[in-house]
Design goal:
membrane, 259 residues, single chain, Cytochrome Bc1 Complex, Chain D, domain 2, iron, mainly alpha
Length: 259
C-alpha cells in the first residue's frame, strides 16, 4: 500500500493527469464540434477530372499539388465551398494581378467547377458546398437576418448590401446580384478581405436568415427611390444639388416675375 501511495504522489503525476485531461477534452470536442469542415463524398472520376483541369489551368500559380507558391496560397484544406465560390463567380482563374480578384463571367461550366471542387476537397477537409435547403431564403427570418447583417457585415457591405469602398484599392462588392449559394459560401470561406464566419460564429440557420434579408432588399425600397442605397452621401447630394437648386430657381423666378 505504501508503494502504491508513493506512485500516486510521484512528482510527474500532475503532468500525466494534465495530459490525460487534455486528451479527454480534445476527444469530446472532436466528437461534438460542428461538422462543417468535413470532406464531401465524391467519385474518383470527378477527382481525376478535376485534377487534370487544375494542372492545366491552376497549377502555374498554386503549384502542381495545390501546395501554393511564393505569394500564392495553398489550397489544401480550403474545401469545396471556396473553390465553387471563386470559380463560379469568375474570380478564379484571375485575369490580372490587382488589389483583389474581380468577378467576371466564369471560365468553367458547372460540371467542370464541380470537378475542380471535388479534387481540392480530396486534398484535405474543408467547408462543403451548402445544400439547397441551407440557402433557401423562404425558410429564413429576414428580421433576424437584418440584425445579424448590420452587426457583422454592414460596415463593409452597406446596411442593405449595396457594397462599399475599402482601403488600398479594395472594395466590398454589392450583393444584389450574388446568388444565395455564393452568399452562404462567402460567409463560410471568407474570400479576400472578408473574415470567415464559421458555424461557431454564425450558425447555418442564421446564415440563411441573412440570405433572406438580402433577398428582400432586391424587391425595392418601401420608402420610395433608393438613390442607389448608398445612404447619406447620395441623399445629401440629392438634397443639396437638386433640392437647393430648385429652391434657388424658384427664388429667381419669383424675383423676375415681381420686377
Amino acid at each position: 500500500m505504501k508503494a502504491l501511495a508513493a506512485r500516486r504522489h510521484h512528482r510527474l503525476a500532475p503532468v500525466v493527469l494534465l495530459l490525460m485531461a487534455l486528451l479527454v477534452t480534445g476527444g469530446i470536442y472532436a466528437a461534438l464540434a460542428p461538422t462543417e469542415a468535413q470532406a464531401e463524398t465524391v467519385s474518383t472520376e470527378d477527382i481525376e477530372t478535376g485534377k487534370k483541369l487544375f494542372q492545366a489551368n491552376c497549377a502555374t500559380c498554386h503549384g502542381p499539388n495545390a501546395e501554393g507558391t511564393e505569394g500564392v496560397p495553398s489550397l489544401v484544406g480550403v474545401g469545396a465551398a471556396a473553390v465553387d465560390f471563386q470559380v463560379s463567380t469568375g474570380r478564379m482563374p484571375m485575369q490580372a494581378n490587382g488589389p483583389q480578384a474581380m468577378a467576371k463571367p466564369p471560365q468553367f461550366g458547372p460540371e467542370q467547377t464541380a470537378a475542380l471542387a471535388a479534387y481540392i476537397s480530396s486534398l484535405g477537409p474543408g467547408p462543403a458546398i451548402p445544400t439547397d435547403e441551407q440557402v433557401d431564403a423562404e425558410l429564413g427570418d429576414p428580421a433576424n437576418g437584418m440584425a445579424l447583417f448590420r452587426t457583422n457585415c454592414a460596415m463593409c457591405h452597406n446596411a442593405v448590401g449595396a457594397g462599399g469602398a475599402l482601403s488600398e484599392g479594395k472594395f466590398a462588392p454589392s450583393l444584389f446580384d450574388t446568388s444565395e449559394r455564393n452568399i452562404y459560401q462567402a460567409m463560410q470561406t471568407g474570400p479576400q478581405s472578408m473574415p470567415v464566419f464559421n458555424d461557431a460564429n454564425i450558425t447555418p440557420d442564421e446564415k440563411r436568415d441573412i440570405i433572406a434579408f438580402l433577398v428582400e432588399q432586391r424587391e425595392g425600397s418601401a420608402g420610395g427611390a433608393s438613390l442607389g442605397s448608398l445612404g447619406p452621401v447620395s441623399e445629401g447630394v440629392w438634397a443639396w444639388v437638386v433640392g437647393l437648386g430648385l429652391l434657388i430657381g424658384a427664388a429667381v423666378w419669383i424675383g423676375a416675375k415681381s420686377s
